[in-house]
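Dear colleagues,

As part of the handover before I leave the project, I'm documenting each prediction I ran so the next person doesn't have to rerun anything. This entry is a single chain, and its sequence is reproduced below.
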Amino acid sequence: MDVPAGPEKRSFVRRKFAAVTGRYDLLNTLLSLGIDRRWRRAAALEAAGAPPGPVLDLCAGTLPLSAAIVRAGAGPVAAVDFCLDMLREGTARMRRRPEGARIHPACGDGERLPLADASVAAVTVAFGVRNLADLRRGLAEMHRVLVPGGKAVILEFSRPENPAFAPLYRFYLHRVLPAVAGAISGDAEAYRYLADSIEAFASPAELAALMEAAGFRDVRCRPLTLGVVTLTTAWKEGR
């Protein structure tokens, strides 16, 4: 499928996330063989290395990264997502968990954040920057709301470069994942979009260059699980 762009992408992504909300976390765990929890923990530990203060978890979804950030000793967490159904699902779960007291969900647009300038010590995004309709604007907003010396942490899918592993991964991504996830969720199109959006998204080096253009400094990319995902960290000047 063609990956939507602009306002069409914003509407499409919101609709698809709403459609798979009930089984979203289950599928993430099944399709990653449980490794997604380790990826989020790595991102949460990076966020815990920021200066003390509030953390913005952007594209927070059902709040798994927000909870991991609190467990890592950081926060409180402002959890922002533009899909209200995802936030409602996560909020209902967090009521039964101790982390919930330090997580404050809000429905909002990552390209127009409902936060003041220099208001958070860290910004995190797990598997969300790929879904922004205007990536440059989203990165600029992340930079705007960070305090001087604040830290950005982005966890995103990437394309493995190992010549032995890459073809196997692409077969899984385009053939196995949409079939299995579509059967469980009832929406194969959402997972075809996932596969195609990963292929179409910026490489780690390209994302790092975009972050530098947005004003971030000391941008570092760390591949995880043979490059299936990349953990990118950066700082706002002033530390």
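Residues 29 and 36 are 6 Å apart (CA to CA). The chain has a mean pLDDT of 89.

All the best with the project,
I.
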